[in-house]
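Weekly modeling sync, notes
Attendees: AB, CL, MP (scribe)

Item 1: holo prediction request
CL wants a bound-state model with NAP before deciding which constructs to order. AB pointed out that an apo prediction alone won't tell us much about the pocket. Agreed to run with the ligand included and paste results into these notes for async review.

Input as submitted:
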Amino acid sequence: MGTPEHEMYDVVGIGFGPSNLSLAVALDEHPGNVGGRPISSAFFERQPSFGWHRNMLLPDATMQISFLKDLATFRNPSSRFSFVSYLHDAGRLVQFVNNQDFFPTRQEFHQYLEWAAASLSDRVSYNSDVRAIRLPPGTSPGSADYIQVEVADRGGGGERLVNARNVVISTGLVPRMPAGIEVDDRVWHTSEFLDRYGRINPDDIKGVAVIGAGQSAAEITRFLHDNVPHAQIYAIMPSYGYAVADDTPFANQVFDPGAVDEYYNGTDQTREAFWRYHKNTNYSVVDDDVIRDLFRRTYGERVRNSQRLNFLNLTRVAAVKRAGTETRVKVQSLIDNDPQELSVDVVVFATGYDAMEPTALLGDLDQYCLRDSSGRLRVERDYRVVTSGLPCGIYLQGGTEHTHGLSASLLSNIAIRGGEIADSLLRRRAA
Ligand code: FDA
Ligand code: NAP
């Protein structure tokens, strides 16, 4: 990296999750970036080390995509950053093949991502929270060919200003709680699950409610059933039962690289069809094996006449009341609108996430970023925000479901997307 006074990069990545890690890999491998003047890059990550949804690294959780949709393979099948290359390095390639499973555990994929991130550590600063981006003082929007990035060191090292000709914002999904409900030491969102769980004595949990009917809810219900064997578990869901995630081959094509073009260049009608027919590939749905496992458990309890796993279907949570260690969950049945209260020790909200939202980070720069009639950012095919003439580039990885489709917040397309952004950066530098 440059000296602190003169830090100027061709690209600064904000956040270093799988998306920007994949971009770092794509830049590292880009033919136009080898020899000549390589694109200079720096990535800032607020966590103390690489971490991919660490609080949901539950022991049995598996990936929801094939291992071949890794950081690089779809763009460069001979990449040294592929999952296969990682397995070879870890001495597990042969046994992985014998295991005959396209879907590794999330723990194994996490190890792979950490391994890849470690190879690129010279361009990443951890414990580094990007607080703001702005035009340099005294410049006009038409002439500013770089952006200032303000970075706070969470380890107490003060603030750092770096300059970037382009920024790539990739700060991830935003945990969603129902309106009016706040998290605390007994009311958790799944995004903090293992951390919160680790701070409580499981013996103190006699009753726990898990809210939601998506993958997070089902995995946590199963985890609690395994790990808190004396507790009553209430799975509270708005549907009649968990619905299966469609990962059948035809439907899975919505995550293909080519689907991005069809979505981007399609009409409103095209885009509406993607959502109407294929939302159930990802949202409010659960993998088939987890559903069957949970049903088998509850049925077994019926047979033994010792019910501990309770499913409250067609039910939404309206409020949570806290008093000391007591937590009362106000639930509303969708059958008769009858409000009821449930007293538990812990409530886990598996109520999902909102898409990445860069507005706060954009700050004053937001006024130069163009929006559509629904107020959403306009984004070019190369993931660059459409601006009113800013020479520097603001790219988004995430938050582009309205323009690029269902894979915007997923891993499915990160290898290709990273390559497309790398292409765009090199093309624009040459122009
Ligand atoms: P991600 O959220 O991973 O990373 C963003 C990073 O930015 C974080 O590390 C964060 O700390 C950092 N950051 C945020 N603000 C910052 C700031 N101001 N300054 C510095 N750093 C900042 N998808 C899929 O395709 N297959 C799957 O199997 C799964 N599995 C899965 C499990 C769970 C539990 C969840 C919640 C989600 C998934 N997903 C998924 C979807 C998920 O969005 C995807 O796997 C990636 O996390 C997307 O990677 P990103 O890098 O875009 O975001
Ligand atoms: P999700 O799919 O958005 O599900 C949220 C659930 O909460 C929905 O069932 C929703 O119901 C429900 N809900 C919202 N408010 C509620 C309320 N007030 N009362 C009761 N229910 C309420 O979220 P998620 O399960 O966290 O999944 C998010 C993403 O992470 C997905 O991409 C998923 O695949 C991924 N994920 C992957 C893994 C893995 O790889 N193993 C694990 C976990 C998550 P409505 O449908 O009515 O809104």
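Recorded for review: Residues 257 and 413 are 6 Å apart (CA to CA).
Action items: CL to compare against the apo run; MP to circulate these notes.
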